[in-house]
């Protein structure tokens, strides 16, 4: 399988969101990554279902919605209605992890769990055969443009091992500080999806940036 590229629109210019999305679509993006932040789980605020719905009307690409919010289960229904295809929530933010996975899946969306850098990956072991995606954070969630943390790469290797051992089918995604220098390490460790905001949207040639990441596997 080739590597999937999921540009995060957090670094797009929201005053011209339509052309920003067309740009990465034209350059071969596989998904669009949407960072939802509530100012509580993370010290930053972004957007909610209204913008997800707008992006859904602008693009046919799968929408990879990353919820950095407390009590994510409460909002699943609204994000699915807005067009989310993948809904990833943080294990640190939800008491009923199993119930939230089932809730997402019962709405027909794919369910993902994310782990912040300080969180041990082993916490997600009970859910491995029930999830569609694991999002390994390689920066502390909250902002784009931060420095990649290579110390999270053993989590990716653990996920690859556990997938073999358990026969699970989840995709492994990595998010934070991904660029042409850091992505090779992540791909080497075994990721399937590369999320990237500032590297892609900040490149003078976005097609070249996406091509560089996509050619890594
Ligand atoms: C951070 C977000 C990331 C962010 C990535 O909390 O989850 O998706 O947009 O930004 P870059 O690629 O610039 O690190
Ligand atoms: Zn994200």
Query: Which strand order spans the largest sheet, edge to edge or round the barrel?
Result: 1-8-7-6-5-4-3-2
Estimated share of beta-strand residues = 15-25%
Proportion of helical residues: 25-40%
Number of strands: 8
Order of helices and strands: EHEHEHEHEEHEHEHH
Main sheet attributes: strand count, strand direction, barrel closure: 8 strands, parallel
Shape: globular
Poorly predicted runs of 5 or more residues: none
The helix-and-strand class reads alpha/beta
Identify every distinct bound molecule in the structure, by name, code or SMILES. Answer: D-xylitol-5-phosphate, zinc ion
Describe this structure as you would to a colleague.
The protein has helices at residues 17-26, 49-58, 76-82, 97-106, 153-166, 183-189, 198-201, 206-214, and strands at residues 4-7, 32-37, 63-68, 86-90, 110-115, 133-137, 171-175, 193-196. It is an alpha/beta fold and 217 residues long. The model has no long low-confidence stretch (mean pLDDT 98). The protein binds D-xylitol-5-phosphate (DX5) and zinc ion. Residues 8, 10-11, 33, 35, 66, 139, 141-142, 144-146, 175-178, 195-199 line the site of D-xylitol-5-phosphate.
What's this model, at a glance?
By secondary structure, the chain is α/β, with parallel strands linked by helices.
Q: How would you summarize the topology of this molecule?
A:
Elements: E1 4-7, H1 17-26, E2 32-37, H2 49-58, E3 63-68, H3 76-82, E4 86-90, H4 97-106, E5 110-115, E6 133-137, H5 153-166, E7 171-175, H6 183-189, E8 193-196, H7 198-201, H8 206-214
Parallel strand pairs: 1-8, 2-3, 3-4, 4-5, 5-6, 6-7, 7-8
Bound molecules: D-xylitol-5-phosphate and zinc ion.
């Amino acid at each position: 399988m080739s590597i999937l590229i999921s540009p995060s629109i957090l670094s797009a210019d929201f005053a011209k969101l339509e052309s920003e999305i067309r740009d990465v679509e034209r350059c071969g993006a596989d998904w669009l990554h949407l960072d939802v932040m509530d100012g509580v789980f993370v010290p930053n605020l972004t957007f909610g279902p209204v913008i997800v719905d707008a992006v859904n009307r602008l693009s046919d690409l799968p929408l990879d919605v990353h919820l950095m919010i407390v009590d994510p289960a409460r909002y699943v229904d609204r994000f699915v209605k807005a067009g989310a295809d993948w809904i990833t929530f943080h294990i640190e933010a939800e008491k009923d992890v199993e119930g939230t996975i089932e809730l997402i899946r019962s709405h027909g969306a794919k369910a993902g769990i994310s782990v912040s850098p300080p969180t041990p990956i082993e916490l997600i072991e009970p859910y491995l055969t029930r999830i569609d995606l694991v999002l390994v954070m390689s920066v502390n969630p909250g902002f784009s443009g931060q420095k990649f943390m290579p110390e999270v790469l053993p989590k990716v290797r653990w996920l690859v091992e556990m997938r073999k051992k358990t026969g699970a089918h989840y995709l492994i995604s990595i998010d934070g500080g991904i660029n042409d220098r850091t992505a090779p390490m992540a791909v080497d460790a075994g990721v399937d999806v590369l999320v990237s905001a500032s590297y892609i949207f900040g490149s003078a040639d976005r097609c070249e940036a996406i091509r560089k990441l996509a050619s890594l596997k």
